[in-house]
Amino acid sequence: DALAMARAAAPSVTDPAVVADVEPVVDQVPLNVRRDPREVPLAERIARAVELERVARERDPRIVNTVVRYSDGGGEIIVANTNGTYLEMAGVRCQLGLRVTAADGTERQHSGRGRAGSRGYELIEAVDPEEFAGKTADRALALLAAEPAPAGKFDVVIDPLICGLLVHEAFGHNSEGDAVWTGNSILEGKLGQPVASELVTITDDPTLPDLNGSFKYDHEGVPAQRHVIVENGILRGYLHSLETAARLGGRPNGAARAQGHQDVPIVRMSNTAIEPGDWSLADMLAGTERGLYLSGGAWGYVYTAAGQFTCNVEEAFLIEKGELTTHFRNVCISGMTLETLQNVWAVGRDLRFELGGTCGKDGQGAPVDSGGPHVAIRGVVVGGQGEL
Predict the structure, then answer these.
(1) 235 vs 252: CA distance, rounded Å
(2) Which end of the chain has fewer CB atoms within 10 angstroms, the N or the C?
(3) What are phi and psi of 82, to 5 degrees?
(4) How far apart are CA 373 and CA 157, in angstroms?
């Protein structure tokens, strides 16, 4: 039926479809986890979630709402195409999220944490309730006494979670080949040109083990590979499907995924990060005469065609002569992507991936992760309700 419809439509096609040539692959990817969550009794999984919720809820009477989300899933993906590729890939994923709300009669504040990975139930067993749930509740409680965030331009130091949020939302979506091809990316026509500080190297790497965006083959049957998108500030490449590689003259690099068998594979990020540098957090703070240390965040937004971004931040601290002083709440940062990355003056050596979850695009969700080290940036626009 599909072929018949394609033949019927062919005479009216003005922009013929093209795909890049790629070597066929025949392979089986077995399940490789220590404990398959589908074999863990449901009662045990529920008890684990209940225990995490209890630790957060009983922290303090001012904790007024706690939500724990646990999910797992597994199965087999089969990729077969007319090039001769035939893949059978087994896998499972586990995901855990916590949201805590604290209130004191006049103020209400939230804090959240998450864990996700292409791993078995061992990912959940490794979570320490006190560190995961207790500290999340402590942060929500501490935010009740924090000051309203100031508004204006500040030198900032961002933690690895916000670094991951920034590199995924502000930059990663711009590097996807379909955005470039349709004219919706600020990176169009900039290959080989500086797009960030020379301290910044950005990679997208599905070959990293056990992360939420990890895989061996994409959903067009192309082997996964590490993508160096930006190297020392210079734009080196885009993420490609077979179609965008053909249209943009690039090489297929295994970055196309589909939500399910009824969806078309589209260009997606995997595990995206700013690579670590040489700085310690202490040295970044010491190099900031007056600014803000930004920590924690849950969401971001990017307007790829204009190069604008916004990132939510859970909390901030005033940096005064290298020391953290006043605590702030209700913070966000925004700006122009390339300008912000060009203003990076220090990159830390403490790389962490802390944003495993699902990224939505064109009605499809894909498992991803993102991260980075601490990063120091000059002149970032901070949104808040207070003053300094």
Answers:
(1) 17
(2) N
(3) -75, -5
(4) 10
